[in-house]
Amino acid sequence: MTDLSPETIRTRADALGPWFHNLDLHGVRTAPDHFLGDYPAVKFAGFAHVLPERLDGKSVLDIGCNGGFYSMEMKKRGAARVLGVDWDEDYLAQARFAAEVTGLDIEFRKLSVYDVGSLGERFDVVLFLGVLYHLRHPLLALDLIHEHAARDLLVFQTMQRGSDQIDEVKPDYDFFEQDHFHSPGYPKMHFIEREYSHDPTNWWAPNAAGSAAVLRSAGFEITAHPEPEVFLCRKTARPDWSGPVYPAKGAAR
């Protein structure tokens, strides 16, 4: 499909719209009037430099791939295998069309982040960009990625609100010690009961410290924080205290 005329690409792209990813398909822009500008290219420019320039021989899982921008960028860096997953059939149709037009060999599947264990494989690089705040159960998603999908690198991004300050938090606090909860840099996850920005799937808005804390809690060591919403992590062992349920009564502490 790389020899399609711009007029044909424009017609096909319009039929698949509206697009959230403003892709460049041989000169045809899919979302030229995006409210965030040239998105997500403008976002990627802020953290592209912390990713390996070459991914030859590596596998990549793009969770919440949307129109496929990041999947295509990883393939352009030479990744041997790129799998993009999303729960929205319209986004998947856009991503497949974009990959075909650009001649990139990328697989796309309909899959929820909560079902990554069904893939039965781990990936060298996992992209988890713009997904966490849309989830009712965000920590479960990170735990499943750690247990079933990630082999090494995790690239994480979420909508954040509140302070960019990140406090150094003590391992423990006395029950009556409460002042730290009021600090702008203490980890927080703001819960959105109804809608935010006219989107009922915007459930959570962590501050920067909240994003960092949930990543560490899930077993991801932060190695770079190149822009306010993006964290580059390496998979490590999960902390002993990050179990999913309250310890049995009388358990050793």
Structure in a nutshell:
The protein has 253 residues and is α/β, with parallel strands linked by helices. It has helices at 6-16, 41-44, 69-76, 89-102, 138-149, 208-217, and strands at residues 24-25, 28-29, 59-63, 81-86, 107-110, 123-129, 150-157, 189-191, 204-206, 220-227, 230-235.
Low-confidence stretches: none
Computed over alpha carbons, the radius of gyration is 20 Å
CATH topology grouping: Rossmann fold
Percentage of residues in helical conformation: 10-25%
Give the topology string: H per helix, E per strand.
HEEHEHEHEEHEEEHEE
Number of strands: 11
Mean of pLDDT: 94
Q: Considering the protein shown, what is the CATH homologous superfamily?
A: Vaccinia Virus protein VP39
Strand order of the largest sheet: 5-4-3-6-7-11-10
Total of DSSP H or I helical runs spanning 4+ residues: 6
Total domain units? 1
- So what's the oligomer here? single chain
CATH architecture label name = 3-Layer(aba) Sandwich
Structural class: alpha/beta
- N→C terminal distance: 61 Å
Give the DSSP E fraction (strand runs of 2 or more residues): 15-25%
CATH class category: Alpha Beta
Shape: globular
How many strands, what sense, and barrel or not for the largest sheet? Answer: 7 strands, mixed
Describe the structure.
With 253 residues, the chain is α/β, with parallel strands linked by helices. It has one domain: Rossmann fold. The protein contains six helices and eleven strands. The strands form three sheets. The chain has a seven-stranded mixed beta sheet with strand order 5-4-3-6-7-11-10, sandwiched between helices. A two-stranded antiparallel sheet has the order 1-2. The chain has a two-stranded antiparallel sheet with strand order 8-9. The protein is globular, with a radius of gyration of 20 Å. The chain starts with 5 loop residues before the first helix and ends in an 18-residue tail after the last strand. The relative contact order is 0.12. The mean pLDDT is 94.
